[in-house]
Every structure is written in C-alpha cells, then in structure tokens.
Amino acid sequence: MSSLRAMTNASSPSQRLLILGGTADANRLAAAVAREPRIDAVLSYAGRTESPRPPPIASRIGGFGGVAGLVNYLREQAIDRVVDATHPFAAQMSAHAVEACAIAGVKLLALERGPWQRQSGDHWIDVDNIEAAVAALAGTPRRVFLGIGRQNLAAFAAQPQHAYLVRLVDPPRGVLPLPNADIVVARGPFDRAGDRGLLQRFGADLVVAKNAGGDAAVAKIEAARDLGLPLVMIRRPCVPARPVVDSVDQVMEWLAHGAAPTERGV
Ligand code: NAP
After folding, report:
1. pLDDT, tens digit (0-9, with 9 covering 90-100), for 29-42
2. Are 165 and 181 spatial neighbours (Cβ–Cβ below 8 Å)?
3. Could you tell me which residues are beta bridge partners of residue 59?
4. Best CA proximity match to 30, nearest among 58, 60, 61, 62
5. This prediction's pTM
6. Residue 64 in contact with ligand 1 by CB distance below 6 A
7. Could you tell which of 18, 73, 86 is best to mutate to test the pocket of ligand 1, judged by most ligand atoms within 8 Å of the CB?
C-alpha cells in the first residue's frame, strides 16, 4: 500500500504509460492503473480480436510500424514508461519494445507469467515451435483439440488426416485453412470442468497448446491432465533480455518506485 500512497502523493509528477496488451494480464493492469489518477496510461492492441473488451483506460489499436514507428510513437506521445504485457508468443512485438525503448530512452518492464510446468501423470510432448508441433502429429487419424488461437491454424493442414476442434475468440470470417475442423467460439478465462466437458464431448485424444502460463488459459492443460490425454506443448519463443515481473502488484510497485527487477529473457 505504501507504493500506492507514494504514487498518489500530490508532489509526485504524473507518468505517461504505454501498456502493450492483448492478454488478460494487460487488462488486469489497465484496471489497476485506472485507479491511479497520476498515471496517464494507454492500452495498445494489435487489432487481432474483433471486439476486445472495452478497456477502463484510453486505448489504441494497430501496429506501430516496426521499431521506428514505435520510437516515433514513444516520442510523440511523451511516454515515460512501457509495460510489455503481450502474450509470451508475441515475440516480435516484445523484441521491438526492447529495441525501441533503448533508442528512445524509455524504461521498459515486461509482465509475464512463468511457463506452465509438467506435473506427475502429465503426458507432455515438448516441442520448440509450431512446425515441430505439426510434425508431432504425423501418423494415424486422431481427434485433436487445437488450443492455439487463430494465427497458426494453416500449418496444421499438413496433417489433414485428423479431426480437429479449434477454439477461437471470434467466429471465422471465411473457411478455416484446415480441413475437417469443428469450431467453438469462446473467450477466456476458461474453467477446468468446462474444458474437461468440451474435450469429452468432442472425444479428443490429443491436445495441442502453447505454453502461455498464467491462469486464463490453463483450464485445457488441467483438463488434459484429468483425462490422461497426451498434450503437445509448444515452448515459448526467444525474446531479448528485459526486466520481467509476473504480477500486476509488482508492476504497480515499479511504477511507484522504479526499482528495476533482474533482467530475464527466454
Ligand atoms: P507479434 O507477432 O509479436 O507482433 C506482430 C506485429 O503486430 C508487431 O510487430 C506489431 O506491429 C503488432 N503488434 C503486436 N502486439 C501489439 C500490440 N499490443 N499493440 C500494437 N501492435 C502490436 O504478435 P502476435 O503473436 O501476432 O500477437 C498479436 C497480439 O495478440 C499481441 O498483442 C498479443 O498479446 C496477442 N496474443 C497473441 C497470442 C499468440 O499466441 N501469439 C495469443 C494471445 C494473444 P508493428 O511492427 O507494426 O508495430
């Protein structure tokens, strides 16, 4: 609480904060900074989701135009600090943030949950990337739950022998780039019993997931565990080293005092 008091002290200057979003954690952080009158924050979305939840702070939508575009934005908007709260698989945006903040002399902190850890009884097949996940699906036809979002679906067309169940935030605009796929449109956070039921109704015998970490999307991992299903787990991509915390409270502490945690990259 002392940190919040420090932030709301009338003598402390206001801060211009950019939050790179697209995640449940970014939304939680936006809600927290909305309660701090001395933080003037904007939440940035890539624009992938058609109807993001209305944010409690100012927002903008769309790419910045690479590193140079982000540097310009930071300067034009007089941004003091950036919190990268993007998804751990949004590696390009995170790399751009590291580079642009260094050029513009803006402090950067990443808000990122640690990866999910394998537990006893789990049948994880760890792979390095989407291509390796596709390769891991070679073989006899199976019923596969693809809990990886929309962006990488086309790659799985290379394994057309399977029946797929795909969960998407928005209904697809056209035909999915994947033959033999059922679609469920739903927005997280999901719960364990609900995901267990989903997998059972579909008759899934394999799950594919990105190791996002956190609690918003962990239900499918727990459901696969409950049902004893094998799970192809895609490791996180590499991101340049930057200071990282894993809770909104730690971000708020940093905004109040500015103490940078140890640098971490994946
Ligand atoms: P990416 O590959 O790292 O980024 C591609 C480009 O999209 C970036 O270079 C940037 O364009 C733009 N961009 C990404 N995030 C942005 C943001 N928050 N605000 C403004 N521009 C952004 O990212 P991605 O994997 O396509 O993910 C896009 C968004 O979806 C991210 O915000 C991420 O948090 C969210 N998301 C991603 C996943 C996933 O599995 N990848 C899952 C859930 C949510 P410019 O170069 O033009 O600036």
Report:
1. 999 999 999 999 99
2. yes
3. 43
4. 58
5. 0.91
6. yes
7. 86
How much distance in Å is there from the Cα of 105 to the middle of ligand 1?
Answer: 22
Q: Whose CA is nearest to atom 27 of ligand 1?
A: 90
Q: What residues does 139 pair with on adjacent strands?
A: none
Show Cβ contacts of residue 130 under 8 Å, excluding neighbours closer than 6 positions. Answer: 148, 152, 155, 234
Strands 58-61 and 15-20: unpaired
22 within ligand 1 shell (Cβ under 6 A): yes
Tokens of 27: 């939304």
Q: What is the three-state SS of the chain? A: CHHHHHHHCCCCCCEEEEEECCCHHHHHHHHHHHCCCCEEEEEEECCCCCCCCCCCCEEEECCCCHHHHHHHHHHHCCCCEEEECCCCCCHHHHHHHHHHHHHHCCEEEEECCCCCCCCCCCEEEEECCHHHHHHHCCCCCCEEEEECCCCCHHHHHHCCCCEEEEEECCCCCCCCCCCCEEEEECCCCCCHHHHHHHHHHHCCCEEEEECCCCCCCCHHHHHHHHHCCEEEEECCCCCCCEEEECCHHHHHHHHHHCCCCCEECC
Give per-residue pLDDT as tens, 123-155.
999 999 999 999 999 999 999 999 999 999 999
46 lines ligand 1 (CB under 6 A): yes
